[in-house]
Design goal:
- The chain is mainly β and 457 residues long.
- It folds into two domains: 31-124, Immunoglobulin-like; 129-455, 6 Propeller (Neuraminidase).
- It contains one helix and 36 strands.
- The protein has one helix spanning 2-28; strands spanning 43-48, 51-52, 57-63, 72-76, 79-80, 82-86, 90-94, 102-108, 114-124, 129-134, 148-149, 158-164, 169-174, 178-183, 188-194, 203-208, 214-219, 229-236, 245-250, 256-258, 265-269, 274-280, 287-294, 302-305, 311-316, 319-326, 331-332, 336-340, 348-349, 358-365, 376-382, 387-391, 396-402, 429-435, 440-445, 450-455.
- It has a five-stranded mixed β-sheet with strand order 2-9-8-4-5, with no helix packed on it. A five-stranded antiparallel β-sheet has the order 11-15-14-13-12, with no helix packed on it. Strands 24, 25, 26, 27 and 28 form a five-stranded antiparallel β-sheet that branches.
- Strand 32 and strand 33 form a beta hairpin.
- It starts with a helix and ends with a strand.
Length: 457
Amino acid sequence: MKFQKRINCFFIFFLFFGSLFYACKDKDLIRKDNNYDPGKPTVFADFSPKKGAIRTRLYIYGDNFGTDVSKIHVYIGDRELKVVGANGKQIYCWVPGQTSTGQVRVVIDGNPAAEHTFTDPFTYTKSTTVGTLVGNVDEDGKSGIIDGTFEEARFEYPAWITYEPGSNALFVTELDKAVRRVDLAAQTVSTLITNGQAGFGKMQTTMLSPDTDTLFLANDNGNRSTPNKVALAYSLRSENYRRVHPILYDVGAFSCAPHPVHHDLYYNSMNGTIIKKAVADPVTGEMVPKKLFSIGGNLSTLIFFHPTGNYAYIMAHSRIYKSMYNWERRELEPAIIFAGGAAGDVDAIGTSARMGRAYQGVFVKNPAYAGQADEYDLYFCDQNNQSIRILSPTGMVTTFAGKGSPTPDGSKKGYIDGDPRLEARFADPTGIAYDEVNKIFYIAERDNKRIRTITVE
């Protein structure tokens, strides 16, 4: 036992000082104290490592590189890398996903420009990897709503995430507080909407319209009895998502989901866990609630329509319900339990599966299902089990990522990047979105206060 404790202490010591070494090394490479001199020769000595996967740290060694990263370009074949820093003698960059094996080429802008291609190739290894996109905490584990570049930006309580493919951006809902926008191209974070706009009290979730021009917002309000608070609202792309317009007043809403074909809005309230539809009042024309059915209890449920519109999954903590869509009545029908039951953590089919708290989910087409009636899996966050899980069309629940690197105390929580099942750890993951073009999942973590990525290759 004493020997095991020594081993554990040594392992923690190694991880801490190893991380400190890389942090200091990377920070040194961002110092601007050695400008590029076009009148002197530029020396390209070597690069390392010679092999790696996505997010590998690649270092170029030599002399007279300069420190202006905007003038330094590094390529592996035709794929340009993200240059993070340079100190004149070293260039530090990240290897992006979807890279292929190829020659490493460096170009430094100037008059004249300096260019070099190394003889040894960089061998790229494909992998599914968990990484960190943006977010940080201080030495006490605290953070806040701070806008700025990816290096500067911070999150306080990121709970929900929506991907906007048109502008390659993310909407991140800070639970009860704000909606943030993550510009993936510019690598900046800004605050779009805060509590108080349009009478909002406790912002919960966001959802894009099928044409992605409208952002719908659900508001809880902490209200359980008076149906006169803003429950649903919207914000428009044409207004840069800066204004909020009320849609419907009710006791509150935890999520809303537009039907992908008919575009009608569905939402839920906590009292009796009622699923509702927003309909137009025949006299006033205003949107009013129409109660469809109740699951029972008082749960903060979440609704997700299948891309075809044929059905919706309703996440209800340790259970996932399935509600079929009636195309004639244009309404969801009473739901049945499709997967899960009592709280737990078991990969299995149907009601034999166990979940902690199923939260946001996203449908992803599975090539293995090509030609079948349903070609999509649902990837969803299991908050209490610190993992990302998959629900298949047959009702099979499996674990996709999280709970790696077991600790002596058996904790599932943590903050570790790497292999999804062998290394990666999450802390209260509740938000998930998917970029189907680049095959990247984005994960919002409440406790780690970060946006993580899972890149699939």
